[in-house]
């Protein structure tokens, strides 16, 4: 089935992740994607236990905490968040971008792993993450999921305005 121009507009991403500065350029803005991730998770109601910083982080961009209410009691889950901002290159996040996830989760005392990515994951990384689900919770937030959650959340307007000013103005 062919799409007409109006249909294409409806499925095009609204937020352009290239508006967020590249993480691999030393220009003072290289931490912006991690700060965006921090603000995104705060918007969702997570507590930020360990935020972005510069230097050797041992594969930890954020540690966030989620409070879960259950029938037999409440629990708190700490998540290790790994941010990869590849929107400028358009490359998928590869297995070699995420080294020793299990070891990193254990080192930081987390009970789960979140990949926070401005592109999609590669198939090999997807298989690796699927295998890790035997050991702990694993979630992936790619560009599409992040955008959907921002646009559906009442607080998302503030995030969009700050990190995607051009997209927001459109």
What key attributes describe this structure?
single chain, 170 residues, alpha/beta, 5-stranded mixed β-sheet, disordered N terminus, Restriction endonuclease type IV Mrr domain-containing protein, Restrct_endonuc-II-like, endonuclease activity
Structure description:
The structure is a single chain. By secondary structure, the chain is α/β, with parallel strands linked by helices. Helix content is 35%, strand content 20%. The protein is built from 7 helices and 5 strands, in the order ααβββαβαβααα. It has helices at residues 5-11, 32-44, 101-107, 123-132, 143-152, 156-163, 165-169, and strands at 47-50, 62-69, 74-84, 112-117, 137-141. α3 links the parallel β3 (74-84) and β4 (112-117). α5 (143-152) crosses α6. The longest helix is centred in the N-terminal third of the chain and has 13 residues, at 32-44. It is globular. Mean pLDDT is 89; it is low at 1-9.
């Amino acid at each position: 089935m062919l799409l007409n121009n109006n249909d294409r507009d409806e499925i095009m991403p609204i937020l352009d992740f290239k508006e967020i500065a590249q993480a691999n350029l030393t220009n003072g803005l290289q931490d912006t994607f991690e700060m965006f991730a921090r603000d995104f998770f705060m918007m969702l109601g997570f507590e930020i236990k360990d935020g972005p910083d510069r230097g050797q982080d041992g594969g930890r961009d954020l540690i966030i905490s989620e409070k879960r209410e259950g029938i037999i009691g409440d629990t708190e889950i700490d998540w290790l968040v790994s941010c990869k901002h590849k929107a400028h290159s358009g490359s998928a996040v590869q297995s070699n971008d995420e080294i020793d996830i299990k070891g990193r989760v254990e080192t930081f005392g987390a009970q789960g792993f979140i990949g926070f990515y401005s592109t999609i994951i590669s198939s090999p990384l997807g298989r690796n993450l699927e295998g890790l689900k035997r050991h702990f919770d694993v979630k992936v937030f790619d560009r599409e999921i992040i955008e959907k959650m921002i646009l559906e959340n009442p607080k998302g307007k503030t995030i969009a305005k700050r990190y995607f000013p051009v997209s927001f103005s459109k």
